[in-house]
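Help needed: design a sequence for this.
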């Protein structure tokens, strides 16, 4: 039989699985974000204990490694105080004549559908450190953002 028609095992032809990528830089989290990470780790541990087959366990272990790393590297930021935009702030701002509200959170907690953006996002970086009434450059435009109001996010 020709060598071209032989294979050692089915695993040779599977796509390789890589570790889930972890963002560079500090892992700043809000209190809500830390609770979400802890809940995810606990959920994965329960799922691992109940996993039925090797493929499922392998996928769960991969996710568990990611979330355990995120938990161990989490740096809890204090709730923002005062008027300055910080991680954990709910910010009302104007951009192109339209008023929007976003909450600046840690990377794992970000969810655009809930208007929660990561502190590392360009919009968040432009807003961080600003106070109400202050204008900020954004996306190459001068004074593109105007901070209207800011408060500590109390939503859970």
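Sure. Designed sequence:
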């Amino acid at each position: 039989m020709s060598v071209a028609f032989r294979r050692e095992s089915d695993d040779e032809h599977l796509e390789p699985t890589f570790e889930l990528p972890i963002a560079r830089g500090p892992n700043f989290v809000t209190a809500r974000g830390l609770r979400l990470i802890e809940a995810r780790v606990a959920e994965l541990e329960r799922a691992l204990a109940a996993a039925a087959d090797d493929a499922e366990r392998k996928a769960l272990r991969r996710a568990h490694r990611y979330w355990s790393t995120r938990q161990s590297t989490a740096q809890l930021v204090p709730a923002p105080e005062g008027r300055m935009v910080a991680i954990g702030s709910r910010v009302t701002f104007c951009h192109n004549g339209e008023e929007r509200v976003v909450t600046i959170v840690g990377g794992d907690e970000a969810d655009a559908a809930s208007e929660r953006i990561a502190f590392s996002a360009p919009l968040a970086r432009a807003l961080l450190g600003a106070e109400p009434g202050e204008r900020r450059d954004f996306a190459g435009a001068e004074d593109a953002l105007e901070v209207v109001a800011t408060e500590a996010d109390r939503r859970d």
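The mean pLDDT is 89.
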